User: Fold these one by one.
Assistant:
Number 1:
Amino acid sequence: MLRTGFAKRGFNPDTAIAELNKTVPLGRIAEPEDIADAVYFLSSDAARYIAGTAVQVNGAKPVY
């Protein structure tokens, strides 16, 4: 799960986010910055030897 504008429409976002946070092993849903940090790393020289893999940025909650 990623916190975006969805949380602002039609229901109490604080309650919804709190409930979603309980379902993620790391304790919270992703912020946009969490995804951006992974993209930044993968586009950096530090990731120069990474090829052909899927990197899951999911807070340890598999999404199938």
Number 2:
Amino acid sequence: MNRHYDVLIIGAGPGGYTAGIRAGQLGLKTAVVEKAELGGVCLNWGCIPTKALLHGAETAHTIASSSSLGFSTGEVSLDIGKLVGFSRSVAGRLSQGVAGLLKKNHVDHLVGTATLTAKGKVTVDGETIDADHIIVATGARPRALPGIVPDGDRIWTSTQALIPDEVPGHLLIVGSGAIGSEFASMYRDFGAEVTLVELAEHNLPVEDPDISGVVRKAFTKRGIAVHTGSHLEDVVSDGTGVSATLVEGDGTRTELRADRLLLAAGVVPNVEDLGLEALGVARTERGGFIAVDEWGKTNVAGIYAIGDVSGPPCLAHKAAHEAVATVEHLAGVAGAEAVDRNWIPGATYTRPEVASLGYTEAAARELAKKSGHSISVGRMSFAANGRAIGMEAAEGMVKAVFDDTTGELLGAHLVGPGVTELLPSFGVLRELEGTAEDIGHVVFAHPTLSEAIQEAALDALGKPLNQ
């Protein structure tokens, strides 16, 4: 007789292991199948180790800029191997933590490769296992571009960028989304010359243009060359570096030479060899992701998909949130809440940081117009914030968009020091159906960066106090 589970999850990234934990908490007999490390890309080769390296980059910046505060540091050098070792140790520690959480919640961890063979049946390295509910959480991988094929040596993906044996003299980056921009910021602080190439008309394409514009200005000031509306042609990798032709929007062509090229142009879902086609599981026309509804259900009963494999935004916290929603729904939990992908927060750990929630100003204006409403936009620059000035980090702003009729928050867009930690205030406001007036009634401690949130709300109401 085959082993049987109430829930079987394929993949143990943030979506998969969270689904396993929640299912275990609900008393469901659960297994998680993973062929690599627990924690997936985010924990092992993405969000977590990147932030550890960015901590090193921030430290390098602090040391380099400390003379303005009266410190004399002398010559400073970076042991990149030691920093990479620290980053890997952080990832390893957290991966072990996932194993402990699965065990604590009585979730079986099956090591191997899983394939769906029939409704309610999965094979794991030859063993057939029965399951009432199957959740696919296999994630995604870096997308290759025509003519730019990662070779692990001169042409990198984010994986190689996390474990360099040396800091390249010149790093050429294709793609200025969160991944490309974070590595640009990081490697510049490590001392590399950095060139950032983006096909879209503005960097950080999913962000509000006001916000990405601040980052571009800051990057340019730091010596990072940013080319938007541009692409590369004739990319050639050899033993000593990479040659390419930069083609800009106006047709200008420039020959480039770099030590390394980092390809950061999005991701593709890990759907191969899962048996999805044979079972008729539908995929999206754009990107080939597994098509799901707001509960993670596919078109085939009993099969679900969560996280990156089910489509953008491809973010760890979105995967974890979907995991809870899907498991609670299939378990029949009263009050289970579906996922609204329009309200998944974004966080980019560049210098300055970027954080966003909801609709951009342009999208919010179109949304409100459909209801016959108008919007109010409030802004507060960190250049007028005492805490930011004292930190020598006064670049950036808080921008908030509200519906004039209902007062509800439609979007929040932040760029500046520590804004990834400020953004959840807007998330709570949205969840509690608060308004700009409600923010105005809160007493914010002074001096804090968070005061910019209140000032932006007051500005939207036409009554700012400090600008």
Number 3:
Amino acid sequence: DPADATAVELAPADLPDDVLIYTSPSRYCLSDEMAVTAKELFGAIPPGYGRVEKINAFVHNHLEYALGTSTSVTTALAAYENGVGVCRDFAHLAVTFCRALDIPARYTFGYLPDIGKISMYPMDFHAWFEAYLGDRWWTFDPRNNDRRRGRIVVGRGCDAVDVAMVTTYGDAALNELTVWSDLA
């Protein structure tokens, strides 16, 4: 994941029209309800890339990653209060904090191969977020809190409502899924 410590936050009036939607609350990212908390935690940090890195690190340290601790109705606020969640909750909480500070942020999911990393989990869907700083989107991963190579983006949106990993009608069982990925 590329990084740029000099990337700046833009005032809402200076954002491109298609980016503005990512400053508003959404189903899982209730930034209006967490605005006071966001300002208390991050309001004194100088605006820019560094502040988003601090948000990313805070979420990484605040939430414990535990499979099975989140449901389809778990909001960022609930994850924050419970202190536990899955990668989706990590991404939602970071997005929520960013939006509460008028930093455009969007939920992103796909695959994260463990290129150059050792993982105790098999590759599966993974969620992270992107923040709009300067003139582009930057990738942040609060679950892992480090830069990775080879991300495969499947979807982007305001939150998981926009880009559901799976939509089924009736009973469904996944028997096997294998994904291989490498850098070109």
Number 4:
Amino acid sequence: MRFSFQPRSRRLLTAALLAVCVAGLPAPTAFAQGNLDAQLEAIRARETALDEKVVELQTQYRDADEARKKQIEAEGEQLFKDFQTNVVQQRNALMTAAQAAPQLSESVAVWAATNAFGENDYANAEQFSKKLLATAPQNRIGLNLLPASQFALQKFTEAQQNFAKAEAAGVLLPQFASFAEAAPEYAQFWAQEQATRQKQASMNLPRVVFKTTKGDVTLELFEEEAPNAVANMITLVESGFYDGVKFHRVIPNFMAQGGDPNSKNDDPTDDGRGGPGYAIDSEFNNPGARKHFRGTLSAANSGPNTAGSQFFLTHLPTPHLNGKHTVYGRVIEGQEVVDSLQIGDEIQNAEVVSKRNHQYTVKKNSNG
């Protein structure tokens, strides 16, 4: 990942940190319980110092000549390396220590829960939120992140109960209001979804594997509810269309989007605009159309009947997309890979590993 000094935000290093995959780092030395707060303050001080240096270099970059710009870019690359090798490992070590600690101070628990949630690590976000509320029962962050994490993990009944506590305390955050509203209905949707999965377990649904730069993702395709979207995916995969395509749009706590052939070139400005040269009709109004849950494979579009090759994989349930995007599969292995994807990560190879014994023909419309 290349670090850029083009003006974007004042929290570039923090954003970069959240984008770094921390899997595979060596196990840290255990922290003493009383030392966790000191470790957190040290990490924050280092983040602040690095961030201030980034802002300084950004300011210089705007007025620099070409020679100086190259120097600044080199300094930025070194800063980013330092950030990865020092701050990231320190943060990961503190997160691991916080997981092992039976109790946490309010500040460490807030930090740990917030960072876990921001990295789509909902299981740890839930546990850190519980530790936070054990220490500070009225903490606003804990009262919100506990049910939000449970909603992401599809524990909808628990989420509903804990969102009610946040609402009763008058601290429900606006970004989670839609989750709180959807939780009761999603408990019903989830029961229906589980019944459908059980019913279809022996129906030989097609499967596709994406071999990405972060690991393998195995998808089960919903041929019963979205046969044309499935035919489209199988046809494109078997043609090699997705090989080398990058994930061009990734939004934490939402989804990772890919499937645009334009992402293969060196021009990021055209990412998100490409497709296979045709469009297919939407199937989100088909009988039994599936809802958006964690790990859903859904068709990206710019309106009804405009889907092509682009798709997205969800980090958590997305109620606002139901009835607007065709759900045509789900992640059955590799959700942790989906959670770790960043912009620029690549599908190195896509393969149909199983399908039904009939021809898959795509029905195209006139919108392509």
